[in-house]
């Protein structure tokens, strides 16, 4: 598989680095990046070939990964369109719908769209992935292979489902960091030294998430096993239920989902 990244930012670097770590030949990768310092960094660290403009990188190979900012996508698509042949175009730009991207590409239809999250930067991400019907099975496998370089891949069969994917997993790391931050604050307020408070909060979250990932049991069952009748955990959970924390979390995710849909409307306007 030969591939070209349009944009050489954090996510493109993570994907290229993840592929390299899995043995992918970096000489089969190209990166189009405007900033000379970024091109120098990518060439030096990964050995990939870098170009300043999309035209200079053509032909693009099997997969083109659009990794520019959403606000730059229309301009990038217009520059890319004259040089496309039958490549899969995979967009990782938040909010850009494939109908709009295809229009900017002059009616090109071999399109897929994904929504990764920031843990991809350490190879622990999860990515929602959707492909149009025109994308062949071999190209779907190529898209999956690229994204699996930085974590798990979950296919969705309706592009509209990428909005809730955005709300849950793409925005989700911020929710996790918020909970860790709050747990750390509670530990400090109860007298635990700052460094120890941070370690306790992070290790508790990391260990619990790993336990849930390895277990075949539902999170509710795992929660019940920690909750002894009349104990400390029961008291804490009763306080959370009284404050309707669960309902607040669902409302927050719904708000993120609504905003994802709004951004798609805004970014797709010509």
Chart the SSEs and their pairings.
Blueprint lengths: L2 E4 L3 H12 L7 E4 L3 H11 L2 E3 L2 H4 L5 E4 L6 H8 L7 E4 L6 H7 L6 E5 L9 E7 L5 H12 L2 E5 L6 H9 L1 H18 L4 H21 L4 H8 L5 H11 L2 H23 L3
Parallel strand pairs: 1-2, 1-4, 2-3, 4-5, 5-6, 7-8
Antiparallel strand pairs: 6-7
Characterization of the model:
The chain is an alpha/beta fold. The protein has 2 domains: 3-162, NAD(P)-binding Rossmann-like Domain (Rossmann fold), CATH 3.40.50.720; 172-264, ProC C-terminal domain-like fold (Orthogonal Bundle). Helix content is 53%, strand content 13%. The chain has helices spanning 10-21, 36-46, 54-57, 73-80, 98-104, 137-148, 162-170, 172-189, 194-214, 219-226, 232-242, 245-267; strands at 3-6, 29-32, 49-51, 63-66, 88-91, 111-115, 125-131, 151-155. It has an 8-stranded mixed sheet, sandwiched between helices. Helix 1 links the parallel strand 1 (3-6) and strand 2 (29-32). Helix 7 (162-170) crosses helix 12 (245-267) and helix 8 (172-189) packs across helix 9 (194-214). The protein starts with a strand and ends with a helix. 31% of the residues are buried. The mean pLDDT is 95.
CATH architecture of the largest domain: 3-Layer(aba) Sandwich
Low-confidence stretches: none
Total domain count: 2
Secondary structure: helix percent:
40-55%
Largest sheet properties: 8 strands, mixed
Structural class: alpha/beta
Shape: elongated
- Count up the helices: 12
